[in-house]
Amino acid sequence: MKSKLSKMLCLTMSTVMLMTSVPAVTIHASTGTDRFWVNGVKTPVVQTMAEAVSAKTVSSWETGKSYAKGDIVSYKGGYYQCKQSHTSLEGWEPASTPALWESYTGEIPTPPNPGTEDVTVTGIALNKTELTLESGKKATLIATISPENATNQSVKWTSSNNSIVTVLNGVVTAVAAGKATVTATVSDKQATCNITVTDKSTEPMPSNSPLPGRVLTGYWQNFDNGATCLKLKEVPEEYNVICVSFADATQKAGEITFNLDAKLSKALGGYTVDEFKADVTKAHQKGQKVLLAIGGEVGNVIINSQEAAKNFADSAYSLMKEYGFDGIDVDLEHGIDVPNLAKALHLLADKAGNDFILTMAPQTLDVYTYDATYLKLAREVSDILTIMNTQYYNSGGMPGYGGANYNQGTIGFLNSLATTQLESGLRPDQIGLGLPAVPRAAGGGYQDPANVVAAIESLVYGKEAGGFTPPKAYPNLRGAMTWSINWDATNGYKFAKTIDACFKKLPAVTTASDNIKLAANDSITDATKTEPPYPFWKDYVNYPNKNTKVYYKGKIYQNKWYANAGAKPDAGDPWVFVEDAEWTVKEDEKNYQKDENAETNAINKVLSDAEIEKLYGGINKDYSPEAAMGRLNELIPKSSYEELFPYRFGSEAWKNCSATKQYYKDPSNLPDYYSYENLQSALQTLANTIIKVQWYEGAEWCYRLIRLDKTTKEQKLIYSDASFGAEWLEGKKELCTSICDYGSFLAVGDLNTRKRELAGFLANISHETGGGTVEGEVDESLSGLYFNEEVGFIGSSAIGYVQSSGTSYLPVEGKSYHGRGPIQLSYNYNYGLCSDVLFGDSSVLLKNPEKVAQDGVLGFMTGIWFWMTPQPPKPSCHEVITGVWQPKSNGANAKYNGNFGLTIIIINNEAGQSENGTGAVARRARYYRTFAGKMGADIKGEQCDTVGMTTFVQQAGANSVSKASIPFLYQIAGKKIKAGM
Question: pTM for the whole thing?
Answer without folding.
Answer: 0.45
